[in-house]
Design goal:
This protein is an all-alpha fold. It is about 60% helix and about 0% strand. The protein has six helices and no strands. The longest helix has about 30 residues. It starts with a helix and ends with a helix.
Length: about 150
């Protein structure tokens, strides 16, 4: 059940993002404090941080992504070139495959750290929370895209 929820959310994110026009992903729309590219990178980094202990233990994605996409960061402050849309999509797809490789025993195991919100006790609980977080960002991406596309056509 846990993986189904995650896969539903991740597949929806990848499907929507794969159809984006590159010219829209870096536009900072009114009333939004980040860009579509930032939200895509943030979902990648957040999942990596909680499930693979990035950046301390995980080497699955570049260490520099933490400075670009962690909570509290902003594209306005970027000092380096962010990854391309294609690179982010590929990393999200590969991450989905890696997450699906965890066995049932892993999902039943206890989380070894305190999670800031909710009653998260097992890795499975953590994945539910992370899928919810990702779905929230997908909603923001869709809203941002709607605003940016409207502004672009005017």
């Amino acid at each position: 059940m846990t993986r189904k929820q995650f896969n539903l959310t991740r597949t929806a994110l990848l499907t929507f993002a794969s159809e984006l026009d590159v010219s829209t992903i870096d536009v900072q729309a009114d009333y939004f404090n980040n860009t579509i590219r930032w939200h895509l990178g943030h979902t990648l980094v957040t999942m990596e941080k909680f499930l693979f202990r990035y950046p301390k233990k995980s080497e699955n994605i570049p260490a520099g992504y933490a400075q670009l996409f962690s909570s509290g960061t902003s594209p306005k402050d970027w000092k380096e070139e962010p990854p391309s849309l294609e690179a982010l999509l590929e990393a999200l797809e590969v991450q989905q495959q890696r997450i699906n490789e965890f066995n049932d025993l892993f999902w039943k195991s206890n989380v070894q750290f305190k999670v800031p919100f909710g009653s998260v006790e097992t890795q499975g609980d953590l994945l539910i929370m992370l899928a919810f977080h990702e779905a929230e960002h997908l909603g923001k991406i869709k809203a941002m895209h709607q605003v940016v596309a409207k502004d672009k056509n005017e």
